[in-house]
Each structure stands twice: as C-alpha cells, then as structure tokens.
Specification:
The complex is a heterodimer of chains A (182) and B (514). Chain A contains 6 helices and 3 strands, in the order αααααβαββ. Chain A has 182 residues and is mainly alpha-helical. Chain A has a domain of 40 residues. In chain A, strands 2-3 form a two-stranded antiparallel sheet. In chain A, a hairpin with a 2-residue loop joins strand 2 and strand 3. Chain B has 3 domains: 223 residues, no CATH class; 114 residues, no CATH class; 59 residues, Arc Repressor Mutant, subunit A (Orthogonal Bundle). Chain B has a 9-stranded mixed sheet. A 3-stranded antiparallel sheet of chain B has the order 7-6-16, with no helix packed on it. A two-stranded antiparallel sheet of chain B has the order 5-17. The interface between A and B is large, with 44 and 62 residues. Chain A: Subunit of the heterotrimeric GatCAB amidotransferase (AdT) complex, composed of A (QRSL1), B (GATB) and C (GATC) subunits. Chain A: Allows the formation of correctly charged Gln-tRNA(Gln) through the transamidation of misacylated Glu-tRNA(Gln) in the mitochondria. The reaction takes place in the presence of glutamine and ATP through an activated gamma-phospho-Glu-tRNA(Gln).
C-alpha cells in the first residue's frame, strides 16, 4: 500500500488563507480545478502549521488509532512513533521524509471534510448502499484445487502452506533505516 | 469460509449446541456480572490511601464471553467451497478462501438464515440492516490480512438466555439470565499447526476445527466505580476449564490490584496443567484492528411480513417472520411442557434436555408403557442414566432400547416382579441386549411369588426356624423383624415384596402360637 494523495483542497484552503478569508468559510466546490504539487506558501508558516494541525485530527481512511497520539504532539507533524506504529500495522514503508510529508498533506486534505455541515445527514456506510446484496444458495461449487493453490507457496510440506513459527517482529526504528519487505 | 459463531451463556454440564460443519461462523457476546464480597478487617490503617484498604472493600467482576460456533451449512460463508470435517489439507479451499487477488466474497443465504434463527431463539432484536467490516491483523492463517466480520452493526443485538443452576446445600434450583450483547456473522481463520521442531507453522485453509470455541473477557472493579481494565483469556475448550480460568483470572486481578499493581489490557492463555492464565505470545500490547467497512459487500437487508417487497425473488429476500415460524420448540418451552404434562420436578426436565437423545428415549418409553410417568422419570434419570454415565456411553450407544425398558416397567407395574428383581433384570438387559425382559424373568425365576399360601408357609417355616429372633421381636426390639424379613426374602430368592412379607410375619407373630 502506498500513501498517495494530491493536496488539492489543502492548497485551496492555503490559498484562501493567503487571500485573508477564514478557513471555515471555504467550500469544497471552490477547490475543484486546482491540481496538486509541492505546496509552498511563503511567509505564512504559522497558518501552515495551523492547517496541518487541523488536518491531524482527521482519520486517515477510517483508521482512528493514531490521531490521539498526533494530537498530543501539537507540532502538526506526524511523529516517528506514529510512523513506526503505522508501519507495523499496515506493513507499509515510509522510507523517507518526503513520504511522511506526503502523509501529512494527505491527512490535512481529508480533514477538509470536517468543515462540511453534516447535521441531520445520514452517514453513508457504503458506496454500494443502493445495490442489493446477492445471496448465494448453499451449494458446493468450488474447491478441490489444492495442487493449484499450493503452487503459489514458496514452501510446502505435505499439502500444507509453510509459514514462520509466529509473526516476525519488525526491527525498531533506531535499529534500521530501511525496512524489510515481506 | 466465514462460519457464523454464536456467543451465548451456558447451562448444564455440557454444550447443548450440536453443529457439524465448518465454514460459517457467527459470534454473540454475552455479559454477566457478579459481586465478590471480601471480609472486612477490624483495624483501619492510619493513613487515608487512595487505593482500597486490603480486604475491606467489595470487588465486582465483569465477565464477557465470546463464543464462536460454526453454522451447519454445506458451503462456506463467502465462498462455494465445501464445509467438511477432517478433509485433506487445503482441499476445501476456493480461490477466494486463498485470498487470491481479484476474488470477491459472495454471501451464503443459509448462513444468514441460521444467524437470524439463532437471534430469534435468544430473544434478540434482529437488525433489518446490518453491515460487514474488515478487521485487520497479520497472521499466517489469515492470508487476506483481514477478516470479514460485523463490528459496526451486527445482525442481532440485545438478547438474553435463561439458565438454571443448583445452589446451596439443598441444591436449590434457581434461574438466572445472561444478556446476549450481539450476534454477528464472521469469517473463520485457517488452521495453524505449530511444528516447534522445525521452527515452522503449517497452514491449512480448509478452516479451523472446533465447532464451538469460547474466549473469556474478565475485569474487576469496585461497585460504583468505572469498569476495570479487561484481559482476554483464549484457548478454552470445555466448560470446566472455562470456569477455572475465569475464577483464576478474577483472583489474579484482585490480588494484583490490591498489591498496588495494574492490569494490562492483554490476551492470556489458560495453562491446563498449572490451572492458571499466562500471557500469550504475539499478543503483547493492545491490538489495533483498523476496522473499516467491507467495500465489496452492500448492507445486508432483512425483511418481515410487513416490509417484504412485492414480487421479490424468494431466493434473494429473507423474511424474519417466516424464519420465526420454522423455529423448533425451544428448550424452555419443552421443559415447561414436561413439568406440566408429567408432573416432574423442574430439575428433572433440565437433566432430560441436557443429555443428547435422553428426551427422545424417555418419550419412547412413556409411549409404550402403562407405568406411571413418575416411575418412568425415576427409572430413566436414575437407573438408566446411571448405567450410561458409569460406562461413559451416550444415549445412542445404549444396549437397552426404550421398548425393553417399557416392557420391564410394565412387569413392575402389574406386580409381576418386585422392584429389587426389576433392578436385577435391568442389569441383565444391559449385559445381554436383545433379550426380552420377560425371558430374563422366567430364566432367572425372578417373578414374584403369586402363591400367597406358599409365601405364608415360608414365613411360618422361618419363624419356626429362628425362635431366638422371634423372642427378640416379641420382646420389643423393632429391628429384629427386619432380620426375619431378610431371611424370608433369601428363602424366596427375592421373589417376594418386603412389604408383603412384613405384613404376613406381623400377622403370624401376633396370632397366638398353636
């Protein structure tokens, strides 16, 4: 999984700030049309920090675990501790500082959604909510392909997949710079 | 691949759930509290401490059970692979079960029906809309890296289960209720075989064995204060060990807290040999499952007779009311019916239902005998069940069929044999299955002496043969007559009822000697 997001809304907000408008007044529609890229807002460092701080309170794709930690920092940055936690949870590789910065932008981008007034609006649980969930009859129609499936395994013992004895713990952040890919 | 597991409170001395196949699972959560009192100490410490004074304050334990039960179905919850016990490894695995890219889950209708049925049987509110979620964690037997479950909105919530336990010296039967928090459909993980010798794990994705598994969540707190930190105890596969593990864990937490320690939110395992809980490997620290909605499954919608859409394909809609109609008579109804119909004690009804096949056996005997129901109950629950337990047999393995016991009880009912003789016949029935009771009675000459005169003669002869005992009886020793009765019984080879013997002897003793 790679963390990827164009900070479109973020730029919009930053741009509006530069023009003096209050960030809460920015609507989503105003931000459309702007493309992503490296964001540079000269001379507005404190506004940047505030915007990112707002962003840090937003859940990243629904994962809520680390926001409390990030909030506690107050600096608007995602700490090394949080990065390490994320890497263990999702087995992603934030190999560089640029990747972490991109993550911070993505968080702030998603955070823009909080400024939308959703009072009285039912949350959407699924983009498939208008679809029917198909119910399958309880018949046996597949299976019996052990040989085929086992070909995917690096090691096999008597029709069993072979795995290490337990989860192999990742090395600590200070022990290693780059992380092994499983 | 997903097996509905059912979470519920338990009653009786064995699992009453009897499911066969793997593949589907739903999970229900039940919680119940109890208060553990501590004796108060006479002296109070001089300083006022924030921590509870040792031994002075009550502790309350909160226990939540997570029960995973498999649904009896032909295929898995999300794939069309077969659900079968003891198949060659990885032979019942579809591409989806192996988490190959591009595969999608397809929900099994039968599993949904089973989950609804279970919810109804446990007095739950059935959610007409329920949602599927992904629960992420890494382990070799979970190839997708997540498990599809129902965390946000499960299929059934807020149920209850009544059960009965015996308390006190008199073994008083009391009824208790346990709350069922929720029932959810979820996938099962694969099976891991740990090969410590070669330092590897062998994975079989047919899906885990064990039709019923329980995890216990335990925490303690002082009444009135917030709930304490909970620990989860896994690896429990019998009610006895479940009870031991919970008791141990409650004590451990109380001791730890009273000594100023703290409880970690961790997963522990139960060591059967030592009878204690120990922290589990690979489970240190709180797990972060990163729940997210399952993007490949729309919400599961259920209907009832009022909301059923017109002209809907019956294969594609599930009617809760229709399912309710197909529910069999629930145990509590059966027990009430037995008590009312046969006048048996409530605890007898529990025993009849808690033993697989026993109720059917009892009902078959009742059908074929003219003996009183109370007699049948006594013989089935005491004698018959006693023999089964002694030889560790199930009802289905009994050498004595219901018809044989019915015949025996008829002989007893018509006073053709004494109750002592009946016990002998039963023993013989057990040893020589197929032999009719009447034949045993005649072979062993166990039939009651029908000739009253012959019995009176025997009594007279016994009295004549034991003048000393006769003198004891006439001298006022009440127990001496029992000796005479015993002698007559021996002489009749158990073919006379003691009560009748006593009656005749007393008559003969009171009449003047010739």
């Amino acid at each position: 999984m790679s963390v990827h997001a164009s900070p479109t809304l973020f730029m919009a907000m930053a741009a509006k700030e530069a023009a003096g408008a209050h960030p809460d007044g920015v609507t989503l529609s105003a931000s459309l049309g702007l493309t992503g890229g490296a964001l540079r807002v000269p001379g507005r460092g404190d506004m940047w920090a505030r915007a990112v701080r707002l962003g840090l309170r937003a859940p990243l794709g629904g994962f809520r675990a680390f926001t409390a930690k990030a909030d506690a920092q107050g600096s608007g940055r995602v700490t090394a501790e949080v990065i390490e936690h994320l890497e263990r949870l999702a087995l992603v590789d934030f190999g560089s500082q640029e990747a972490v910065a991109r993550l911070e932008k993505a968080i702030a981008f998603a955070d823009r959604l909080r400024q939308v007034d959703t009072d009285g609006v039912e949350p959407m649980e699924s983009v498939l909510e208008d679809r029917c969930l198909y119910l399958r009859s309880d018949n046996v129609v597949e299976g019996n392909c052990a040989e085929e499936l086992l070909q995917n395994s690096h090691r096999v013992v008597e029709e069993y997949f072979v795995a290490p004895p337990g989860n192999i713990p990742l090395p600590k952040l200070d022990e290693q710079e780059s992380f092994p890919h499983n | 691949m997903a097996v509905p597991t059912l979470r519920c409170g338990f009653s009786g001395s064995r699992w009453t759930f009897a499911l066969v196949d793997r593949g589907c699972r739903h999970r229900t959560v039940a919680t119940f509290n109890w208060i553990r009192g501590q004796s108060s100490v006479a002296q109070q410490p001089l300083h006022t401490a924030q921590k509870p004074r040792k031994g002075a304050q009550e502790w309350a334990a909160v226990v939540g059970l997570e029960i995973h039960a498999q649904i009896s179905s032909n295929s898995k919850l999300f794939s069309g692979a077969e659900v079968r016990f003891a198949a060659p490894p990885n032979s019942l695995v579809s591409f989806f079960d192996a988490s190959l890219p591009g595969t999608l889950p397809v929900l099994n209708r039968r599993c949904v029906e089973a989950a609804v049925m279970t919810g109804l049987a446990l007095n739950c509110h059935i959610n007409q809309k329920s949602l599927f979620d992904r629960k992420h964690y890494f382990y070799a037997d979970l190839p997708a890296g997540y498990q599809i479950t129902q965390q946000r909105l499960p299929i059934a919530v807020n149920g209850n289960l009544a059960y009965s336990i015996c308390v006190g010296k008199q073994q008083r039967e009391i009824t208790k209720t346990v709350r069922v928090k929720q029932i959810q459909l979820e996938q099962d993980s694969g099976k891991s075989l740990h090969d410590d010798l070669r330092s590897q794990t062998l994975v079989d994705l047919n899906r885990a064995e064990g039709q019923l598994r329980v995890d216990a969540n335990v925490s303690v707190h002082h009444p009135g204060e917030p709930l304490g930190v909970r620990t989860e105890v896994k690896n429990l596969n019998s009610i006895r060990f479940l009870a031991k593990a919970i008791d141990y864990e409650i004590q451990r937490q109380i001791s730890e807290l009273e000594n100023g320690g703290e409880i970690l939110n961790e997963t522990r395992s139960f060591d059967y040999k030592l009878g204690c809980t120990v922290p589990m490997r690979d489970k240190e620290g709180k797990q972060d499952y990163r729940f997210m909605p399952e993007p490949n499954l729309p919400p599961l919608l259920l209907y009832d007779s009022t909301s059923l859409p017109a002209g809907a394909d019956p294969q594609q809609v599930i009617d809760i009311d229709r399912i309710r109609e197909t529910l069999p008579e629930l145990p509590s109804e059966t027990r009430a019916r037995l008590v009312q119909q046969y006048g048996m004690l409530p605890e007898h009804s529990f025993t009849l239902l808690n033993e697989v096949g026993l109720l059917e056996f009892f009902q078959n005997v009742i059908k074929e005998t003219r003996a009183e129901p109370k007699k049948v109950v006594s013989w089935v629950l005491n004698t018959f069940l006693g023999y089964l337990k002694q030889q560790n047999l199930a009802v289905s393995e009994s050498p004595v069929p219901p018809s044989a016991l019915a015949e025996l009880l008829d002989l007893l009912h018509t006073r053709a044999i004494s109750s002592a003789a009946a016990k002998q016949v039963f023993e013989e029935l057990w040893k020589s299955p197929g032999k009719p009771p009447a034949q045993i009675v005649s072979e062993k000459q166990l039939g009651l002496l029908q000739d009253r005169e012959a019995l009176e003669e025997l009594c007279r002869a016994t009295l004549d043969g034991h003048p000393q005992v006769v003198r004891d009886v006439k001298g006022g020793n009440p127990r001496a007559i029992n000796k005479l009765i015993g002698l007559v019984r021996k002489a009749t080879q158990g073919r006379a009822e003691p009560a009748l013997i006593k009656q005749i002897l007393e008559k003969q003793l009171s009449s003047p000697a010739p």
